[in-house]
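Extended Data, panel c. Modelled sequence:
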Amino acid sequence: MTKKNLKLHAIVAPAQTVVVSAYDEDKKADACTLSFYTMSSHKPPCVTIAINATAKRKTLKSILNSGAFVVGYPGTDQVKEADYLGVESGYNVDKLEKIGFTTSDGQCVNAPIINELRLSLECEVIHQVTIGSHTQITGEIKNIQADESILNDKDNILLNQLKPIIYDEESFSYYDIGDRVADAFKTGAALKRFFIKDDMK
């Protein structure tokens, strides 16, 4: 296997595409699309996002001023709207109004929920730090709002119903999630048991 050193760049492929919304100082809802997003804690449940601090980002300013944000999950049927929210600036136009998205007040934090997105996480800012070009913001999840259409009878979120958008930084392309390939934690556990038995021989 021949390997090659590559030019240094941000490797974020693949990454889930999310829409982050917040209120500005006039209580006006704004939103931007991100792929720098990850779950960062189980207890308490937290997410971390990163927004380019070297550019003029209205949503970043709004989050830092309000101390809260909502992470919304667009589906592949909303890819055009999601991409628009990432390429247009809230300083220029009311982006949400342009694409026909509406908002409601968060139930637990001072941030807007985008009604058209099927899954939303209401988050309270608990930590922020600027590293290089981006400001990383960690939010503790205070409420999860999910459309019943993406839930099973145990209230588990069904990925095939949510239809998340996967972004590939390498090709600047969007993808769907593809096929299920294995059971998490069970596939590796079976291999672990095999090695244990093999070592006991």
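The longest helix spans residues 186-199. This feature is highlighted in the accompanying rendering.
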